[in-house]
Design goal:
By secondary structure, the protein is α/β, with parallel strands linked by helices. It is built from 14 helices and 16 strands. The strands form 4 sheets. It has an 8-stranded parallel β-barrel with strand order 4-5-6-10-11-12-13-14, surrounded by 5 helices. Strands 1-2-3 form a 3-stranded antiparallel β-sheet. Helix 10 packs antiparallel against helix 14.
Amino acid sequence: MPFPFDIKATEGRARTGVLKTSRGDIRTPAFMPVGTAATVKAMTVDQVKQTGADIILGNTYHLMLRPGPERMERLGGLHRFMGWDKPILTDSGGFQVMSLAGISKVKEEAVTFSSHIDGSKHVLSPERSIEIQADRIGADISMQLDQCVAYPAEKDAASKAMELSIRWGARSKAAFGERKHQALFGIQQGSTFEDLRRQSSEQLREIGFDGYAIGGLAVGEGHQAMCEVLDYAPEMLPADRPRYLMGVGKPIDLVEAVWRGVDMFDCVLPTRAGRHGQAWTWDGPINLKNAPHAEDQDPLDPTIAGPSSTYSKAYLHHLIRADEILGKVLLSWHNIAFFQALTAAMRAAISEGRFEAWRRDFHARHVSN
């Protein structure tokens, strides 16, 4: 395996460890800020680093459309292009393509789709996805191309998508080959059907990947249904490799997923919420647009490094109500910092053998507000 995964401590199914890459260590549980189009929206790379992030995510679909993979390669790859020298994981582009159901067509060989930007036609195969991610973008961790079905899904449709994802996973692995400084993750599919996820996991393990993702969640099934899948899905994957829950989620989702054995996460929620005036805190989300904050001189959260300990809620309220760009920047920064503080707190609690008690306290404080 190109990236050793050292599990430092466990408590029940929860674990904390370090995924070692050539560009730096990734402490797990880890939250990856989403850098959709070569930027974590409204933030500089220095601000992202200050939050404590060890790794970010890049979006293959958006980058292949603009600025384009070949241009990315000519410009030195994504790390150099955006000035980020830590690890980058890229998604395969499959989720965005599948979500464009009206303008995409899935066949055995590849997905064909039209650009949402200019209508131009594109073909994304497992081989092309790996070429874009690993060779053009230069991702440290690439994802296999897979097919994700929406929720709710008929079992037959979920089964066909899972089986196609396995075949595409084998093709992705063949295209990726063996690399010393880059890794490839496979993706478990199967919607909410336990037997399909077991079949998916067994076949992924036969192919052999450097890490494994749990796909097909956060697609409308809700928190409870997600947790029911996570009651069994992570343990179907190899215990000695990182487990990545794709596209999740709210703080409570992360806590419950870690409790069930997940190591890595990504989600657009922190920056998207920040751009719309919502701040995540230990007591739950706060809408800074609301009138009660207009004269609140207390900081948003003095325990979180960054602007949340510097600026008052009254000032943030003013910026958001006035639609000032700075408000979007400061709240996005705060939210990414909060998610990093959340994963750091979970790492510490697991290391010290108090995660179960910490989880109960988090529920009592976060969910009740």
